[in-house]
Amino acid sequence: MIALVDLKIQKIPNELLLLAILIGIGLMVSGWPKGHPALNIAGFVIGFIIFMLPTFIGRGAGWEDVKYAAVVGFCLGVHGLIFAILMMSLAVIFYAALFLVRRKEDLKKKIALGHYRLCRWRV
Q1: Which residues neighbour 122 within 8 Å (Cβ) at sequence distance 6 or greater?
Q2: What angle do CA 63, 66, 69 make, to 5 degrees?
Q3: Domain that holds residue 31
Q4: Could you report the per-residue pLDDT of 67-122, keeping only the tens digit for each?
């Protein structure tokens, strides 16, 4: 749902992020996936920091992406977050290369990143 909303309006509503955190907490309490809750909290912090740093220097991700990376880090933990960032990066590189080859877009266009994170649930 987050990916579709981001693709449509290029914003990620806070309500959907809160819902994702609540689902993540529910999964953590139920014991699925197996792991230590500290990894989820560390994933939250690391996701926030990784996406926040470029935002402070005026480049890279928007605040919606920063919040979303933190939520993904919380839901997937540190290892899942790193995997999701790698998969998202590959998808964005493919997207940019495709449009450069077709010469329909340039690289100055903003890209909604939410729908590239669909792979995060396959970890």
Answers
A1: none
A2: 150
A3: 2-122
A4: 999 999 999 999 999 999 999 889 888 887 887 787 765 556 656 666 555 444 43
